[in-house]
Amino acid sequence: MDLQIDVVSKSNGKALEHTSSQLQSSARQLILQRIVSSWSQELNIEAPWAYFAGYDPRSWAAIVVLKDMGQETTFCNYKTDLTKAQFAEQVQMLAKLHGQYYQSQHPDFERLLIYKDRISNLIEVGLETMCVNGFRAAKSAIPPRLFAKQNEIWPCTLKSVERNAALPATVVHGDVHLGNWYITPDGHMGLTDWQTVARGHWSRDLAYVLGTAVSAEKRRQWEHEMVEMYVSELRKHGGPSVTVEEAWLELRRQSLGVLAYWTLTLTPSENLPDMQTEEACLCFIGRICTMMDDHEVLDAFNF
């Protein structure tokens, strides 16, 4: 079965007018692909089934028609309180995705946008300003020790992106915060909103789910077990053999890129839409930054 991907832009038309022709060319190429339904079945992971996906290249309006997921499906948000088993399912699903498509030779793999290029496109529409402003605006949610190092955050974010680009790539979801998960009627975890799927290193998805899925208290109790399980599952599904220590080093570095998605969301530029509530942004920024502070992630860039 072909690896078929569709990417639908979340940005509005005004923002896209400010992007480069390279972004528009890459987006058009990707949007021509079909959505993730076919390979979600191939992987045997829980994801929405799409009947149709399309867009208008002039207005950049887009539509995705999904199969009815049922009234008993529970869509998560920042207030959802996951169990340890549900947290583990999230980690296992990502390991399966990352393992199966690790350094894939499938021709469609090469057609995916590279994570670094996605960030470069955001830089063109003011990512640095949005992230700096968002970090400052979220001061109340950020551990004081980390906030005191605010001048190091953006430079290390750029290092994080470069590091990601230098590592072997797989298919990454790219936006695995809790609001993009759902719980099926039988209690299993499903993953939706695949519009930022890309080629990148698995450690960013892993850092993202660890940093946003559960409260800081629960994460501290479960995170080491989850990373050990991820490493085992990644290898089981065709990925590389990495040590737990190696996994922790890379996910610490990638947490900066995770934070960037939420600081920009808290204080978007006038060219971008409001995508989340302030409460959701502060919740996730607080969780991510607490994980960063717990693991002294800025020290991971001394290489």
If you had to describe this structure to a student in words, what would you say it looks like?
- By secondary structure, the chain is mostly helical.
- The chain has a single domain (72-301), classed as Aminoglycoside 3'-phosphotransferase, Chain: A, domain 2, CATH 3.90.1200.10.
- The protein is built from twelve helices and seven strands.
- The chain has helices spanning 13-17, 21-31, 37-43, 84-100, 115-124, 127-137, 144-147, 150-166, 202-212, 216-236, 244-266, 278-294, and strands spanning 50-55, 62-66, 74-75, 170-172, 181-183, 189-191, 198-200.
- The strands form three sheets. Strands 3-5-6 form a three-stranded antiparallel sheet, with helices on one face. The chain has a two-stranded antiparallel sheet with strand order 1-2. It has a two-stranded antiparallel sheet with strand order 4-7.
- Strand 1 (50-55) and strand 2 form a beta hairpin.
- The radius of gyration is 18 Å and the shape is globular.
- The N and C termini lie far apart (41 Å).
- This is Aminoglycoside phosphotransferase domain-containing protein.
- InterPro entries: Aminoglycoside_PTrfase, Kinase-like_dom_sf, Oxido-Kinase-like_Enzymes.
- Residues 139-230 form the Aminoglycoside phosphotransferase domain.
